[in-house]
Amino acid sequence: MISILSTQKKFWENAVDGYILTMTDNLESASDLVTLQTIEKEYFPHVKNVLKKHLFTGKKGQLFVLSAPKGKNDIIQFIFVGLGKQDGEPHVEREILRRGICSAVQIIKKHGLESAVIGLPYAKPLGISDAELVKQMAIAAIMSDYEFSTFKSDKKDKRWAGKLFIELGGKPAKELIQAVEEGVVIGQATSHARNWSDLPGNIMTPTELARQAHAVAKESKLKYTEFGREKALELGMGGFCCVDAGSDQDGKFVTLEYKTTTKNAPTIALVGKGISFDTGGISLKPSNSMTGMKFDMSGAAAVIATLGVIAKLKPKVNVIGITPIVENMPSGKAARQDDIVTFMNGKTAEIKSTDAEGRLILADALCYAEKFYKPDVILDIATLTGACQYSLGHFYSGLMTRDTKLAEQIAQTGLLTGDKVWLLPMDDDFKEAIRSDVADLSNTGSSAYSGSTVTASHFLENFVSKARWAHLDVANTACEVPGVNYLGKGATGVGVRLFVEFVMRFSV
Ligand code: BES
Ligand code: ZN
Ligand code: ZN
C-alpha cells in the first residue's frame, strides 16, 4: 500500500528512488525549464534532446521514464508526466493531473520503487489553492494504488508498500501539511468504500456491512445504532421489510452520527442504498443483468466511509449517515408483484416490480431521517436505475433536486473533487408516471413516460417533507468506469469525495 507524506525539502534534496516530473506541452514553461536544467546538470547533459528524440513533448497523457545509475547497484528513475497545454477548463486540467499521477504511481509500483517525490505543478491553470491542490493530489495517488486482490492467491501478502512524498513548494505552511493529511484520510476512505463494494454478496452480507460500519464508528467515536426486521416492522417500515422478506440474511438498518460541538449548527443527513445483492427478487433479473449486482450497496458504502472521514475532519455541522442494508432475493417469503406496502409516513405503494427495490428501502430511510433528526439537508445516494448509464454514460452521476442552489453547490463540489454530477430534470409532468390505480404510488414508472432515472426521483420525493433534498443516482458511476486509470476495475468509491467536500464546505 502506498504511504503519502509531505516533504519540506526542496524537490532534488529528497533522497528517493523516483522523481515524478509533471511537464507541460513543448517542455517550455518556466518550471519545466528549471527542472530540465537540474537534470542536465546532475544526470543527463542533453535530457531535452533525449526526451524529444523519444517523442516525449509533455503532451497530455504522455509518460516517459528515464533511469540513471544510483551507486553501483541501483538506479534512480525520472518519471515524466505530460499535462499538455493546460489551457482548458480548470476541472479538466485537474482531471488530467489525477490521471498523470496515476500513471506515475503505476510505474513506481510496477518497478517496486521504495520512495518517490512529486512536486507541485503550476497551480494557476488548475484554478485551486495550493492547499486544495496537494489534497487532491494525495487523494488521486491513493486511489491509483487501490486494488481488489484479497482473493488472488499469488498477490496475497505481496502488496507493494512504497512512499510518495509531495513536495510543498518550498514554503510549507501548516495548512499545506494538513491538506495532505486530509487528502490521505479521504483517499483511504474511498479505498474502504471500494473494497466493501468489490467484496461479493456471499461475504459482504448486510450483517458484514453493518459490522464494517460499526468498526468505523468505533474507530472514529461516532454514535452507532442498528436494528433489524422486528423494530423496522414496529416503526411501520413497510418498504424496508418487504425487500428484506425474501432473504435468509437479516436486514440491518444502520445509523452513524457525528455531532459537532458548535451550537445551533445545521444537520445534514446522508442516506445510502445498501442492497448487498440485487437478484431482482420475484421479478428476477435475467442472468446477464444480475452480474455486478454485488455493487448495489455502493451508496451505503459511500455514506459509511464519508462518516468516518467527517469524524476525523470535524466540520461545524452535524452529519447523520443512514443506511438500510438488505439483500433482494426471491423465495416463498419474498414480496410479490401486485403487493401493496405502507411506508413509515403512511403512504402506500403498489409493487409493480420487486426489482425496483432501492426506492422502497430509501423511502423508509428518508422518512426515518426526517422523523428522528429533522435535518436541514438530505442527500441520498443509490445505484438506483440501469437507465442512468444511457442518459449520462459513466463520467457523471445523475443528480435530481428541485433546489437549484443545492444543485449548484453539489455540481461545483463535483467539479472540484472529480466526483462529477449532472442535473436531470424533475418536471411535474413526470409525476403521472408513478400513479397507481390501487395505491398512492407505483414503484415503477409507466413505460409510456420512459426516463426511469427521473421517475424514481419523483417516487422518492414523496418521502421528504421538510428538508432540502437532493438525490444522486450512481448506477452508472459506482463501478466499471472505463478509461479512467485511477478508478481502475470494479468499484470506484463514488460519492465519498463529493460528500466529504460538500459537508466541509457547508460548515458555518
Ligand atoms: N440495482 C438496480 C439498478 C442498476 C442496474 C444498477 C444496473 C446498476 C446497474 C435497481 O434495483 C433496479 O433493478 N432498477 C430497475 C428499476 C426498474 C424495474 C424500474 C432498472 O433500472 O431496471
Ligand atoms: Zn433492483
Ligand atoms: Zn438495486
Structure description:
The chain has 508 residues and is α/β, with parallel strands linked by helices. The protein is built from 15 helices and 18 strands. The protein has helices at residues 30-42, 47-53, 90-110, 130-145, 174-198, 206-220, 229-234, 238-244, 287-290, 298-313, 358-373, 388-392, 404-417, 452-461, 496-506; strands at residues 3-7, 18-24, 63-70, 74-84, 115-118, 163-167, 223-227, 252-258, 267-272, 274-278, 318-328, 340-342, 348-350, 377-382, 397-400, 421-423, 441-442, 468-473. Strands 7, 8, 9, 10, 11, 14, 15, 16 and 18 form a nine-stranded mixed beta sheet that branches. The chain has a six-stranded mixed beta sheet with strand order 1-6-5-2-4-3, with helices on both faces. A three-stranded mixed beta sheet has the order 12-13-17. α13 (404-417) links the parallel β15 (397-400) and β16. α13 crosses α15 (496-506). The longest helix is centred in the middle third of the chain and has 25 residues, at 174-198. The chain is elongated and about 80 Å long. One zinc ion (ZN) binds at residues 278, 280, 355, 357.
